[in-house]
Structures
1.
Amino acid sequence: MTTTSPLIARIPDCPLDIIGDVHGEYDALEKLLVQLGYDREGATDDGRRLVFLGDLVDRGPDSPAVVDKVMALVREDKAYCLMGNHELNILLNKPLPGNGWFIQPNPVEKAGEFHSAPVAPGRVDDYRRFFASLPLVLEHGSLRLVHACWHGPSVARLRSDVGQHAPVTALYEQYEAEVARQRNSAELAHMVEQERNFYAVSLQDPDWVAELLPAHAEAEVIGQMSNPIRVLSSGAVHAADQPFFAMGQWRMIYRTRWWDSYDDDVPVIIGHFWRRFDDAAERISGVFGRDVFEGISSHAWMGRRKNVYCVDYSVGQRHAERRREPGHDRYHGKLAALRYPEWEVHHDDGTVIAVD
Ligand SMILES: [Mn+2]
């Protein structure tokens, strides 16, 4: 089996419905497609195409149904789909909370936290092949589409390294080797060691009164920023002002509001970040350090040139909402599509809101 991947793909300059992270929420996807006017085969009568921004899977109740649906749409040329960090992690065989439907054994997924249909044993290879075929970047005539971050230097590096047929996992490992070389450079490794000896504390101890450790922070920044595949699929980072405790350890980096320094003319559409539907919408998971949407209203363009838009309205927290309040069906997290060129956001609950 050869898995090939045109990691940077060009698509026609056509009208689009751009759908944010689905995270296994199959019912929400079906509802949204009906509201957008697609028939059961995923066709419309106006030549419009669907784009999925990645993170089709994990956490929600039926990742296999979502993959089957989107894979069929892509193969019939009715949709394009990007790779998100969740598809990437599956390709890299990384067990993470929420991907136990595919990756087994999964020692980090807590029993009872997620309830998902498992992948059928006979489908494992087909899903892997599909994930490996997904691009990290889509270039449309008028838009740029990427899962988490448009970072010019990372896109350029990927473009020069990719050839047209490099498997994404091989390229990822190549970048990780470079990350390891930089982190193990004599000077940085020495400073990290000094910080560790001086403080003699555990980064896993929540009671430690944390200080920012600059060399630790720099090593973390290198871990993300020197791997273009990580930057595009899970975002840019920078050293924090204050460390914070999340997911079991002290963190020294913040996610970067990269759109505040994006200066190109071409609008960029992303998913990945957990946006709220309105001020009343609660966010019950997915908060990691600072809120990157602070000061940005719920359906506004983002960034210095107001030409970046995030279409992820946190449907990925529904599993947690269900656990907290069984039986309810009015969710804070929603699945959304951005309609281009109309610039309307359609939510799975039927709400349509103009981008402002
Ligand atoms: Mn993501």
2.
Amino acid sequence: MIPLMKSLGLGLCHRRQSVFKVRINKQMCTLVQYQSSYIQKIRLIQSLKDNNNVPNEILQKARFALFFNFKPLVAEKQGGGYCIPWKRFNDISKLLRGLQLVLLTTDSCTANNTVNTPDEVSFAINIPSDKTLENEELTVFATEMRKAMFIMSQRDTDALVQGYGLLKWHSVNSCCPNCGTKTNSDVVGSKRKCEACTQVNYPKMAPIVITLVTDEDRCLVIRQPTFPRGMFSALAGFCEIGETLEMSTRREVAEEVGLIVQHIQYHQSQHWPFPNSGLMLGCYATIKPDTAHKISLDENELEDAKWLSRDEVKYILQSNTRSEPGKPSIWFPPSSAIAHHLIKNWAFDSKADASS
Ligand SMILES: [Zn+2]
């Protein structure tokens, strides 16, 4: 630590250093501490998985997010908003008997993590609907996972989405896909092993491409029949085995709107837990010039598709509401969805497309 701190200019502060330099040094000290605790946390998590054991001292310090019949328990925060009502081992030790435990890792990956220390890990459990909640748990409430994603902070959403995905995976993988015999989970819920053929199965998720197609100063938004009234979004579809991200993007755009894209640029990703775990890979794709008028809709998949200018997109984003009398008839997914960020980033950053 000390040589690293010196190399980063984190030695003892000289009196002549300006206040500005002192502030920079404090920020870098915080960064070094964060990086060190992050590596400790990641290695602890890996050791819990490898050793198939959670020592008692780790269990006593751990915190637990609860689901009730796959609905996360959430609590109102003082001053507004909602959060995970984390429980300690002693609060829920009776509940834990016989329930699947899953180890959460997303909270280790958050920068400026001041919530938990390197040896404090997080778990999630699902309480089946035939178990009665104790009085204390009734002060919080179970809500639909989709709703929780709209009302929680990003950090809490990340933890809940991971817990939900892992708990759901365990609930439908009690039999071996190879021979049909019963499987058993490891202690932290990171894999399941078959009792007969010993095949080990790991939680799976499906890659999904979500693409905002652009044509110079316009973007293409689409509407699926199942979307809420007035909502338009970016094109999305599952990747198929054998495809690259680029191949999937080209195929999806061609299938759904009959356009050929030429430049594809990855932008960002999001885990999506519905109906099963998926990794949404957000991209921009530009179409060949002068072909925008050739949209041919796959009517089995889509109800509508529209080209919108940046100004139109900005106006819709700023109206910030669903369709109401006097408001725009179009709205976009909320900020909990990657489509929102693809659209917003393109609208407010003229360099945000695949051609740049
Ligand atoms: Zn088997």
